[in-house]
Amino acid sequence: MTSTFTVHAASGYEQLMGRWSRRLATKFIDFAGLAAGEKVLDVGCGTGSLTFELAKSADLAEIQAIDFSPVFVAAAKEKNSDPRVTISQADATALPFADAAFDRALALLVLHFVPETGKAVAEMRRVTRPGGVVAAVVWDHYGGMAGMRMMIDTVAALSESGRQMRNRYCFQPMMQPGEMKRTFVEQGLADVTETELMVRMDYQNFDDYWAPIGAGEGPLGKYMATLEAAERGRVEAAVRDAYQAGRPDGQRSFANIAWACRGIVP
To answer: Where are the transmembrane segments (predicted)?
Structure first.
């Protein structure tokens, strides 16, 4: 397996994270840089948050986008109307491209779901030309996602399985300060820079927040699907109470911080 992310329906992912990854994509592009006429690879394109933002951000010659999930690939292909964009199913640790084929290889919210992260970074370096840029960004699950930690900590307080799930969620690969930078350096990239990017996560009400999780999407949804119906109800009620925090249900806003890293192929 080359991805630990669980997806059942593209629409569920869009509600869970896609709408927010589009906000992050613009800041990530500013950090990674772009230039007219370049060929760019999007590794782990999902439903196309970065892919289609790239197409809007610069007069690029070519955008190749790959993802391991056939659900995501089909959804991104359905959205695509740009002849510069090609979307295909592929493995981030065995990219189906020639050496030095791209000016930049980018990965938005992907590396923490790839068990062989170093191999994925090595592949991104391999397919990027000398002087080109490899860049990636991942959420800071432990210290930078207040809205998700609210849910995770609530679940962890209810059961041992919840505590174990929190341990896995908070310490996925590449999420600790300096971890992604070290990996980039280990894979031979030069002038490596790591920084923080922040976006706001806005929800209209608790159902807007909870629906994709309850439907089984993403790591938290995967955990919920393992529970008996009564326990799922207990967890949902507890998380609802945490979300509402003693006030009527309605709009809430949470800050999300991501780690971004960029390096140059020597």
So the answer is: none
Q: What pLDDT score does 5 carry?
A: 47
What domains sit in the chain, N to C, each tagged with a CATH number? Answer: 10-264 (3.40.50.150)
Phi, psi torsion values for 185, nearest 5 degrees:
-65, -45
Provide the 10 A C-beta neighbour count for residue 108. Answer: 28
pTM of the model: 0.90
pLDDT in tens, 140-159: 999 999 999 999 999 999 99
Say if residues 143 and 113 touch (Cβ distance below 8 Å).
Answer: no
In the prediction, which pLDDT does 216 show?
Answer: 84
Q: Are 136 and 77 in contact (CB under 8 A)?
A: no
Euclidean distance between CA atoms 75 and 63, whole angstroms: 17
Q: What is the pLDDT of residues 184-200, one digit of tens each?
A: 999 999 999 999 999 99
The values of phi and psi at residue 108, to 5°, are: -105, 115
Q: What angle do CA 61, 23, 179 make, to 5 degrees?
A: 85
User: Look-up: residue for tokens 């007219």?
Assistant: 36
The arithmetic mean of pLDDT across residues 88-97, rounded, is 97
Across the range 114-124, mean pLDDT stands at 95
What stretches of the chain show up as alpha helix (H) in DSSP?
Answer: 10-13, 19-32, 49-57, 70-79, 117-126, 146-156, 160-170, 179-186, 206-214, 218-224, 229-244
- Provide DSSP, 203-224: ESSHHHHHHHHHTT-HHHHHHH
